[in-house]
């Protein structure tokens, strides 16, 4: 669910949104995805002013699997894409409780998969991934599977992160 507030007349509106993953810009954090900042092209239904409104996003339904995708490419002239400098850091545990409409339910998620893109362009390069299985991390590149450490995983410039909801509590 997203709520927007007009900066001109302070009219508030909300709407349901469905998304399958959380897409983050290069310098955007999870916090800024939910506590949205400004939407420049939104037209207020009350005063009709187009302009800066503030937006917040809250989860109404907690997914079993949460997928975060970092934007790592941007369009260059023509149809080529280039990789953008990537600063998205992440942790092995993600708490979505503050971003839920129901804050009495604890929404804790554990990282279990990381996809990494190697190379400088969208047209070329190679994808590898890291998977946590039976409590151990593995690095997978084509048919090569190697055990690795959590520290190595957390140093990666991640493209996609997979989290699973922790229902043990
Ligand atoms: Zn307004």
Automatic annotation (TrEMBL):
InterPro entries (alphabetical): Papain-like_cys_pep_sf (IPR038765), Peptidase_C19 (IPR050164), Peptidase_C19_UCH (IPR001394), USP (IPR028889), USP_CS (IPR018200)
Domain USP per the UniProt entry, residue ranges: 1-166
Gene Ontology, cellular component aspect: cytosol; nucleus
Source organism, top-level taxon: Eukaryota
Molecular function terms, GO-annotated: cysteine-type deubiquitinase activity
Family: Belongs to the peptidase C19 family.
The protein's name in its UniProt record: USP domain-containing protein
């Amino acid at each position: 669910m997203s709520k927007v507030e007009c900066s001109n007349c302070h009219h508030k509106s909300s709407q349901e949104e469905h998304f399958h993953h959380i897409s983050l810009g290069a310098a955007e954090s999870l916090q800024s995805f939910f506590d949205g900042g400004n939407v420049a092209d939104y037209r207020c239904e009350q005063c009709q002013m187009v302009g800066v409104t503030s937006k917040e996003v809250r989860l109404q339904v907690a997914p079993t699997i949460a997928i975060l995708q970092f934007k790592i490419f941007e369009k260059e002239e023509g149809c080529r894409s280039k990789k953008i400098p990537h600063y998205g850091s992440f942790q092995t545990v993600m708490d979505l409780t503050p971003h839920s409409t129901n804050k009495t339910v604890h929404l804790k998620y554990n990282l279990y998969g990381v996809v990494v893109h190697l190379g400088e362009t969208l047209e070329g390069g190679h994808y590898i991934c890291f998977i946590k299985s039976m409590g151990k991390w593995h690095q997978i590149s084509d048919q090569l599977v190697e055990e690795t450490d959590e520290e190595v995983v957390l140093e990666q410039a991640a493209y996609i992160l997979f989290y699973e909801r922790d229902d043990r509590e």
